[in-house]
Amino acid sequence: MPPNVTRPSATLLGMSFAITLSDEQWVYAPPVVSAGLTTINEGAAMKYFIDTHDRAKGSFPAEQVTAEQFEALYGQLDSALQAAGGLALGAHINLGEGKVFCLTAGADEAGISAAHDKIGLRYDSITEVHRVSGIDLH
Questions:
Q1: Of 3, 29, 45, 75, which is most buried, counting CB atoms within 10 Å of its CB?
Q2: Average pLDDT over residues 72-100
Q3: Model confidence, pTM
Q4: pLDDT score recorded for residue 27
Q5: Could you tell me if residue 4 is inside a domain?
């Protein structure tokens, strides 16, 4: 676990967020951000990405995925990202509709893509994003 990522009292598969499976909501504790970049692993500048998976577009399994199956799959993604120097920060999911929106951090899109390829879960789109909080808007 990178030193600047907070670990809430509830953890899942060693990841830095808590999960409420019954509501299908993920809550994560994001790392420190400066000018849209995340600092993880010995000060390396990391970028945020949101990627999407949609059963209707073929980027999520065609069969129904249970919460437990998704936990395992997401744990594999987190491990693949960490092996590449990145991090899975959280996901917004609707398993019934087969839609997932993953928030990740990595040096570049190629690293995020390689981690997804490693576990056999391609996304249908990916976008580099910057985090903005209410404080930034006032």
A1: 75
A2: 94
A3: 0.67
A4: 38
A5: no
